[in-house]
Amino acid sequence: MGTLNLTLKIWRQDGLNKPGGFKNYKVDGLNTHMSFLEMLDVLNEQLVNEDSEPVAFDHDCREGICGMCSMVIDGRPHGLLDGTTTCQLHMRFFNDGDTITIEPWRAKPFPIIKDLIVDRTPLDRIIQAGGYVSINTGSAPDGNVIPISKEISEDAFDAAACIGCGACVAACKNASASLFTAAKISQLALLPQGQAERKERVIGMVQQMDKEGFGHCTNTEACEAECPQGISVEYIRKMNWEYHCANIKG
Amino acid sequence: MSILNSKIPEGQLSEKWSNYKSTVPLVSPGNKRRLEIIVIGTGLAGASASSSLAEMGYNVKTFCFQDSPRRAHSIAAQGGINAAKNYQNDGDSVFRLFYDTIKGGDYRSREANVHRLAEVSSNIIDQCVAQGVPFAREYGGTLDNRSFGGVQVSRTFYARGQTGQQLLLGAYSALSRQIAKGSVTMYNRHEMLDIVKIDGKARGVIVRNLLTGEYERHFGHAVVLATGGYGNVFYLSTNAMASNTTAIWKAYKKGAMFGNPSFTQIHPTCIPVSGDYQSKLTLMSESLRNDGRIWVPKKQGDDRRAEDIPEDERDYYLERRYPAFGNLVPRDVASRAAKERCDEGYGVGSTKLAVYLDFKDAIKRLGQDVVSARYGNLFEMYEKITGEDPYKSPMRIYPAVHYTMGGLWVDYNLMTTVQGLYAIGECNYSDHGANRLGASALMQGLADGYFVLPYTIGEYLSKDIRTPAISTDHEAFEIAENEARDQNTRLLNNNGSKSVESFHRDLGAIMWENCGMARNKPNLTSAISEIQSLKKEFWEKVRVPGRDDNLNPELEKAGRVADFIELGELMVRDALDRSESCGGHFREESQTEEGEALRDDENFKFTSAWEYKGDDVKPVRNKEELQFEAVELTQRSYK
Known about the structure:
heterodimer, A: alpha+beta, Ubiquitin-like (UB roll), Fumarate Reductase Iron-sulfur Protein, Chain B, domain 2, 2 domains, 5-stranded mixed β-sheet, two-stranded antiparallel sheet, about 35% helix, elongated, B: alpha/beta, FAD/NAD(P)-binding domain, Flavocytochrome C3, Chain A, domain 1, Methane Monooxygenase Hydroxylase, Chain G, domain 1, 3 domains, 5-stranded antiparallel β-sheet, 17 helices, globular
């Protein structure tokens, strides 16, 4: 077990539409078993004890599934490890003496609320535009009535695994939400339950994505590389196919 | 002493719920449109209740403190959800699920509620499948099942190791549909700070907009709390960082009695604590016990690497002590057995507070591919956190606080002792008695939200159709808002010297030490005074930076920790009061010669419902005597 002394260069911003800037902080004697967020806890406790305001950042489950944590670490959303959220990144991947730059998600549709916290409600609105099967409670048939092959079910699961963190948007030079949107569209388009609303869903969700100001996909695939769940850009291809089919067939 | 009316319907156990549904008064569609319901929380219970109530025609206002309703901590549940479908043809039935849950809970839950839970379990699976939840499937296309601790059938439905996520996203999608329709008004980043009571009935809430710091008043004909468990009272737990007790604690102080507060589930398979900086503990799904074997070295203080310890020098202590259930004994039994081995000096790893969970035999028997298909993501998670590869050397695990069976006392309708105030999901004292079985939390959250509350709330609202919306200028709103505001002002102006975090850590240490896996009278007695002095110190010395008029996570945390401290004292009182051992509550004074928990049905066959009597005044313990008609009480044996 080693110890680390680090310099942290962190984006500080007091509120929405307020000016922001980087500030440097020193944290010493860190344990390499710590998670990245536990390292920030140490910094924040230090700041509270100095009577300064701690760094605001979103976080909750700290086990890589809630999708709340969201920071760009040394230029990469969720940091240097592939397939990992910030909360699952551990300090053993850093070296003593490192300077680490920490920024919020950078994307126009995600305005900065404070420090490292951004507003991701546009993603909720994309789901509200059709990311569901219209089935009221109590009207469902027996679960085994519709057999679904293991292959289709696994494919749908791969898409459904999205945690809604927005790293795909933060990674994209166009701030496109295509991977997020495509994942939900594909999950439901693959499954028999999603067929009835297949066309309306893809049209509604894609239009909402555009309305929110997310950019277009230009196939650089940075989203897949940074996605903590490793969701494949193949689903973007599927979304585009679904979208065109829905438009052609009217 | 107040008399608790559980409102259990008359008739045969198996017919109570269907009779109830056929006779419960209905609210007409026209009247539903005029009624407003407030739901706090968007986990499985809150999201499913919000969407179902909105589908029925009620006006729903839903609140969550996260940035999106999809983040609630139900999302982190890994293993699965139980249902009495008997798809595996292994003899499962509603009665067996009911019986296993009652027995697993060590006979401290209400028969009628548990039977209803087992009855609606099948509908939950159907509902989730229809929403597009990608459950695991067999090659023939039918739904797959796995087995879980404490039972001998395969009734657990799962979606890889992310069942909670998929179920929550299903409920979130249903909720999103209603938000889009305008039938649910969703308030993200809003935290409930108090219940508003008018003429003895819950009529609204005070919430704080966490972004702007504004205090808001919201009226509702009824208020539904779905705010989850309070395991974070122990500081370290598997709960999310912001999971808290504030909503139910404020409700308790407004007259909702608190049921069995000390009943806490300590989950046997978590990644052990590695240092003081630790902020939370990570669960490794119990499903791992299906194929993993738990052991410690036979020699005390054996420092060899696990791989170097030969087979005959390993003690598979669960298989040795409990041959009938082996590694699949219920959670409380598995946790205590691990603690017992570590206390005796057989623990492993650098802290010696860990045991091995070994997949060597499973890999040999099934092949690495099969093991990886079943548990791949859990193995990856373990490797991410510890930097060790569980395919090569066994996992190290230790018990950690995971779930709270205690919570607000509710009647058959899921109503608390405050009229019009409901509690659903983990925040009620619930159907799990003194110990919850694996894969039953998801079942209960969704049962309450989709299939129980939407019916039972009608019983109350049908009598309330003539009540017009009450203005939030009413004095009761004014008083409640001022109290919430004053508490935050006091915290910010305190000018103390210690961080909120440090008080939370101190509280956690007191709770874990005295009110954790094993409890005794002297420790519990001294814990009460320790917590009381901690409370005093907190209000004298806590330092909360920042302001009240913008986003201030330290201020949010301070309010939550203040409530945790008070709750901690109540938990300890409850643990002290119940001098029997039952389920997860192990009183050292009450055990068999072999060290197994010894229940005392003669004196403790009841649910404790604690009544608030004022700040720093001793609360009163009321009793709901439990009647068992369908099951015979026996000492639990998994041997």
